[in-house]
Fold:
Amino acid sequence: MKRFKEQIIILNLIIKKPTSLASLIIVVCFVVVGLTAPLIVPYSEDAWGLTYNVEKRFLPPSLEHPFGTDALGRDMLSRVLLGSSFSLVIAAGVIGLSLIIGIPVGVAAGYHGGRIGTILMRITDMFLAFPPLLLAIVFAATLGRGLLNLIIALAISWWPWYARLVYVQTNTVKNMPYIDSAKIAGLSSFKIMTKHVIPNALTPTLVQAALDTGSAILEAAGLSFIGVGVKPPTPEWGLLVSEGWQSINYAWWIAFFPGLAILITVVGFNLFSDALRESADPRIRRTILMRLGIKQ
Amino acid sequence: MSRLVEINNLRKYFPIRSGLFGKIVGHVKAVDGITFSVGQSEVVSLVGESGSGKTTIAKCLLLLERPTSGEILFDGYNITEARGKEYRDYRRSVQAVFQNPFLSLDPRMNVHDIISEPVKNHMKLSRKELYEYVSKLLEMVGLDQSFLEKFPHELSGGQAQRVAIARAISLNPKLVILDEPTSALDVSIQAQILNLLAELKEKMNLSYLLITHDLSIVRYISDRVLVIYLGKIMEEAPTEKIFKEPLHPYTQTLLTSVPDPFAKDVREKVILRGEPPSPTNPPKACRFHTRCPHVMDVCREEEPPEIQFGEKHRTYCWLHVKK
Structure:
């Protein structure tokens, strides 16, 4: 139990604040639905977009189809639910891939410095010079439509931000006296990096990554919306909105429900990462704990 | 007393780079030709203002900085070139305790992991043996087993410094470098830590190189004192002698800044004005001449020679050159 002491304190703090609790619920729901959607959707074939049924097109929300049906008569509830799976995969893929590239670059540049560090950071700066969404659009358009290409395009525009963050943190940490202590203990540079530098330099980056989940979902939806993201008939939220907005005058529900899903998920993730940042920082945590009258 | 570490003419210049291509425009002469030695189970103090180069000497000795020139001899070999077994031997034999324990202990490790880190690196012990070894070390520094699971932020300053000391002695070192070991602590704790250090020295036959600006702890613990100013030695003498008859004007001014409750005669206060000059561009000839109350013409023109007074007392000052 002792090992998870910190995590339990963080969880306690999140539960104590209504907005944080709401965000936690949204995030948990999103993840649970995202993981189980392929199994629980009421109309599985509609969800994957494998069928169409002209007689049922543009049906407004009803008990049978709570979110209505789209231009091809497919159940929107099923499509929106399955969309969360795609958003989950995209967010995890983009952030995971960005971290896999960004962390080693940042740590290597920050810890060793010198010429290699300068070269690595100048390359990073080159990427940072472009507006990230624009860069993602360029790469997505070049690579072509598809789930994997979308993830790669977003990751290419995202990793430099993590590399930069890790670099700055590594630079701070490597000059701490405890790094000198580790050298005196006779540890190799590799061990110092993995056991001291990375654990101490990574917290802000991981919090940032959690904070970015909402943006990743939003940007992926944006790319799909303008037509450089996933291919139809994939039920990706951005694509669903883009399919629905032409008929928004007479079938508002087609664009509305995927849009609402994006809104709730992104707001939920942003509030959740705020809550996480507040409670994971020991200094802020102490003041909150004192305000709540909890003994640590 | 046999010599453990010998430092010969040690220099450390830090280049000052400027401009787009990092052209070297000058050097900070942090340590500029220092020679001294530390004997077996001896406590040597390095005393000086901040910026005098004390910590740089320590960093060179700990292989955290590469000296610009000069040699550091340990067991007969030059450690700046040591590789393999010699290097590992040296790493084991020379350990350090730093000023602020909360910065020198990794905040993400518990006490057991902190103390066992050097041990794991140099010895092969099973989990259980390691646990017992660490517990024993904790006991030696006056802490009990309940501290093993604690993290640095859960400790008081004195407790954290004890943990740092336990880590420093964990490999049975010969020399421990104490870089301002008590300056970050409360006065009441300082005495406890000093007593602990004195006790460990006796028990483990340690040598200390004590780096400090606090002359009262020098008097308490050290055998020999080196007074350093702008990277050069001003005076070296056994502790009693330096307090009784300081020869260099700089030493004299340092000593008058220490309150002495047992002083029989009130010493005339010599107060230095201004800051020490920058080590980038130190004064020529005698480095102290810009602030010296006894400055003479010769001090501005020529570097003072080494003058021996008795066996272990040397100073660099024109005042004491016989005409």
Notes: The longest strand of chain B covers residues 23-39. Chain B is about 35% helix and 25% strand. The first helix of chain B runs from residue 54 to 61. The two ends of chain B are 35 Å apart (CA to CA).
